[in-house]
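Please fill in the sequence for the structure shown.

STRUCTURE ENCODING:
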């Protein structure tokens, strides 16, 4: 059988739509239903299923555990949006904007608990190993988020520090998703290591793509505020490289905008983007993305699984690499 992406995505969405997170008080549970039904690519559960499919066609065993990863991911988004003061998520108001921050914090807490409910669906002989690895991954995601917040208050950070931060904050969960799928299918420890590395390298590449889209995306397709990272002075890969490569005049302009307290948002985005263009930051970012994607595909080649199935996973990843939102 082949990996029917649309059919499996439909099954994941159908499963999510039937979940009862709870009913009362409605202020606690409505926000969970809201964020879980905003859509999204469902990348993490899809990767978990893909990780299983590489070694076994009978994917039913991994469907429910895969949803644990999606619930956890959305829990982190709900809390991250509060910390980032983000107004939009997937083109809709964030939970803290639609309700308030206290509700978003508490609803997020429940989501973390519910993620473990889905992990209980893992067969007994795999449960301890999956849960142990999930706990490590979850801690790393929080470490990445804390580093992201720490970096907001530093005058500058290195490219290496930034790449490690996004590996923790974003990429390790993709790596775990694939690893969990492979684990439940009985893959060897060596293959699991390659899958995890594939997922992490793809994840770093995806985050660099997000950094790029935040500045250069088509506004109608992006689903978030274009230029939001610039307005928030977020130390993305683009800004870090611009600060490192800027001449005296460009550095002065960047410093002016980074320290400005009252400004016209459109003017700030336009001027900072103009400096990115002058320094060819878009091209630099694309090269770094390609570096990580190539590492990932090299990892995938080493996995002891069907060449046809690995090719399906590669093609799936390539469609995400080319995305515009």
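FILLED IN BY: designer on duty
SEQUENCE:
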């Amino acid at each position: 059988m082949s990996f029917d992406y649309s059919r499996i995505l439909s099954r994941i969405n159908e499963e999510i739509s039937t979940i009862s997170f709870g009913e009362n008080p409605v202020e606690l549970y409505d926000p969970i239903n809201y964020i879980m039904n905003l859509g999204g690519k469902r990348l993490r559960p899809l990767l978990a299923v893909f990780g299983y499919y590489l070694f076994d066609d009978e994917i039913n065993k991994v469907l429910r555990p895969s949803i644990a990863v999606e619930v956890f991911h959305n829990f982190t988004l709900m809390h991250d949006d509060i910390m980032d003061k983000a107004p939009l998520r997937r083109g809709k108001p964030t939970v803290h904007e639609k309700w308030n921050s206290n509700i978003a914090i508490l609803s997020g807490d429940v989501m973390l608990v519910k993620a473990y409910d889905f992990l209980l669906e893992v067969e007994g002989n795999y449960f301890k190993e999956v849960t142990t690895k999930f706990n490590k991954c979850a801690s790393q995601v929080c470490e990445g988020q804390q580093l992201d917040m720490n970096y907001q208050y530093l005058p500058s950070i290195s490219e290496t520090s930034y790449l490690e931060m996004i590996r923790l904050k974003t990429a390790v969960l993709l790596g775990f998703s694939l690893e969990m799928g492979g684990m439940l299918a009985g893959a060897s420890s060596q293959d699991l290591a390659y899958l995890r590395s594939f997922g992490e390298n793809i994840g770093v590449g995806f985050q660099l793509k997000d950094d790029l889209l935040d500045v250069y995306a088509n506004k109608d397709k992006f689903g978030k505020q274009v230029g939001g990272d610039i307005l928030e002075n977020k130390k993305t890969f683009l800004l870090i490289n611009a600060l490192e490569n800027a001449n005296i005049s460009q550095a002065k302009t960047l410093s002016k905008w980074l320290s400005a307290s009252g400004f016209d948002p459109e003017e700030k985005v336009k001027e900072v983007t103009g400096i990115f263009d002058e320094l060819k930051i878009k091209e630099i970012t694309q090269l770094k993305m390609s570096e990580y994607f190539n590492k990932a595909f090299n990892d995938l080649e080493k996995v002891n699984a069907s060449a046809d199935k690995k090719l399906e996973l590669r093609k799936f990843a390539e469609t995400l690499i080319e995305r515009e939102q």
